[in-house]
Design goal:
The chain has eleven helices and two strands, in the order H-H-H-H-H-H-H-H-H-H-E-E-H. It is mainly α and about 270 residues long. The protein has two domains: about 170 residues, no CATH class; about 80 residues, His-Me finger endonuclease fold. Strands 1-2 form a two-stranded antiparallel ribbon. The chain starts with 10 loop residues before the first helix and ends in a 16-residue tail after the last helix. The mean pLDDT is about 85.
Length: about 270
């Protein structure tokens, strides 16, 4: 069984942004989301891939967030150069690189947190960019490309931590799968739920029906384990996916009552009473 070491670098920050993007109805992120959704609209649906649709979306979102941090820094540097001179900003520990009292950007801190070392954008610009070559978007892109291996390794680490946390949040998963049902064309056929999916969902839902909280572990009553129903949060009839992020555990009675409705909840058993 694969193990994940959680290093928690702004993991909840990334979770919050991703949750806001999916659950908020505004069009603030429409153009950015199109970079994710447009290619998928031409693709056939996949069934129960271990690189789930949730993994793909989180990977996209984390990469965009980190790149935007780079871009904003480069734009701030460009403004500082316009207000002063290149020679007075680059290599002079200018305040633009140390705003809010931080020595590093979130992008630089992320790479340091997971990789242990980095050449700061300030130092890289001083070595590689001349005054007449400075253009903010180009600098952000070139700096990202320079850090390519570290950059994508860090995105992968953050993605796995974010997916781990978001997978616990069934209401978010419901909103995410409603979103994905509109993105992907057609409908998915009903498939056998793979064993690894059953194990993941059963572990997350603590072997209890998400509706009535009935114990389905089979520990107290061996017949209970035969009542396990692996339900699509967003039904296939509504465009739901055969994806681990769209599955939940139910007893046969509750699954029958739910029918083809979209339903889940975020009711969990606390670790202890206080």
């Amino acid at each position: 069984m694969r193990k994940l070491e959680m290093k928690y670098f702004n993991t909840y920050y990334f979770c919050s942004i991703i949750q806001y993007i999916i659950e908020d109805s505004s069009l603030d992120y429409a153009r950015t989301l199109a970079e994710f959704t447009d290619p998928l609209s031409e693709c056939e649906r996949e069934d129960f891939s271990k690189e789930s649709y949730l993994h793909s979306f989180v990977d996209f979102a984390v990469e965009r967030i980190l790149f935007e941090q780079n871009k904003y820094m480069a734009l701030d540097v460009e403004s500082a150069i316009d207000a002063d001179r290149f020679e007075n900003v680059i290599g002079k520990k200018h305040e633009v690189f140390y705003r809010y009292g931080y020595k590093y950007t979130i992008f630089e801190l992320a790479i340091m947190h997971y990789q242990g070392c980095i050449e700061k954008m300030e130092d890289w610009i001083a070595k590689n960019i001349t005054p007449d070559e400075f253009e903010a978007l180009d600098v952000a892109t070139q700096y990202t490309n320079y850090l390519e291996d570290n950059y994508y390794d860090v995105i992968d680490c953050i993605k796995n931590e974010v997916v781990y946390l978001l997978f616990q949040n069934r209401e978010f998963l419901m909103h995410f799968n409603i979103f994905m049902s509109d993105v992907l064309p057609g409908k998915s056929d009903r498939k056998n739920v793979q064993l690894w999916v059953k194990r993941a969902v059963k572990y997350r839902d603590r072997c209890k029906c998400v509706m009535c909280q009935k114990d389905l572990s089979g520990i107290m009553d061996i017949e209970e384990q035969y009542e396990n129903q692996y339900d699509h949060i967003v039904p296939l009839e509504d465009g739901g996916l055969n994806d681990v992020s769209n599955m939940q555990l139910m007893c046969s009675k509750c699954n029958k009552e739910k029918g083809i409705n979209i339903y889940t909840n975020n009711i969990y058993h606390f670790y202890y009473d206080n």
